[in-house]
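Inverse folding, one chain.
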């Protein structure tokens, strides 16, 4: 089915590209921030078991996981404010104009000898000049399917330099998506400079902005303009599991 947009372009609803990482109860599940793997286990109460294979009438399993540490998730400014504002209800549209861009993080050697991989404004070059978008999705290099199974804890993953904030403002971006566990350095003494700058905490709070982390964009998906359907589970929490779906843009009936 064709879904037409205000500028005359359209998307085909059967062309959605799922950029989320599935959650599973195993050691193979991606994780970060030193959390144990997710647990998906049958309920066992008063001699009854929620597992057909064990004699139960139905499969009835509980899931224990952390949105920030166990896969693709979307968060709001409640992630860093004393009052835990909910991300539920922040997204107000079915589709957002989005730019997908692939970048090579810059290697920086710190004073203690540690090596950082940083997404800086320079990594975009002039590819985003004179462009506008409601969302920006960043794919970092190297890119491989291992990102769907890594344990990122204590690995100092790639993160964003605060100079990227000016690029986002220039583009008009309210929704940032990236394939790393965080836009900030894994160990930064709790400064979280990028989070604070993006959400304007505490002086100019932006309740309309979201950050989505640990997405996965396959290599065959080309950089460019898309429409984004950012699906989120209706959790009343600062963060929730999410499923970003990209739709290629078609400009006319002959595309």
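Residues assigned per position:
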């Amino acid at each position: 089915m064709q879904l037409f947009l205000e500028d005359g372009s359209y998307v085909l609803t059967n062309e959605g590209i799922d950029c989320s990482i599935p959650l599973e109860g195993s050691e193979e599940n991606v994780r970060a921030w030193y959390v144990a793997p997710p647990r998906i286990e049958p309920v066992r109460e008063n001699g009854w078991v929620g597992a057909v294979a064990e004699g139960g009438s139905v499969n009835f399993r509980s899931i224990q996981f952390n949105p920030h540490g166990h896969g693709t998730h979307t968060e709001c400014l409640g992630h860093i404010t004393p009052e835990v504002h909910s991300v539920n209800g922040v997204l107000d549209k079915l589709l957002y104009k989005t730019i997908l861009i692939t970048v090579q993080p810059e290697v920086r050697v710190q004073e203690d000898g540690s090596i950082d991989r940083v997404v800086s404004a320079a990594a975009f070059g002039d590819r985003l000049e004179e462009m506008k978008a409601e969302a920006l999705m960043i794919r970092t290099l190297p890119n491989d399917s291992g990102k769907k199974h890594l344990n990122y804890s204590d690995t100092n993953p790639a993160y964003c330099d605060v100079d990227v904030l000016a690029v986002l403002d220039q583009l008009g971006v309210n929704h940032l998506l990236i394939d790393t566990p965080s836009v900030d350095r894994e160990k930064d003494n709790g400064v979280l400079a990028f989070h604070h700058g993006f959400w304007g905490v505490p002086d100019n709070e932006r309740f309309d902005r979201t950050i989505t982390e640990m997405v996965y964009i396959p290599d065959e998906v080309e950089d460019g303009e898309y429409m984004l359907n950012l699906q989120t589970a209706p959790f009343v929490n600062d963060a929730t599991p999410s499923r970003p779906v990209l739709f290629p843009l078609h400009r006319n009936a002959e595309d």
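The radius of gyration is 20 Å. Residues 2-24+70-248 form a domain with the Glucose Oxidase; domain 1 fold (CATH 3.50.30.50).
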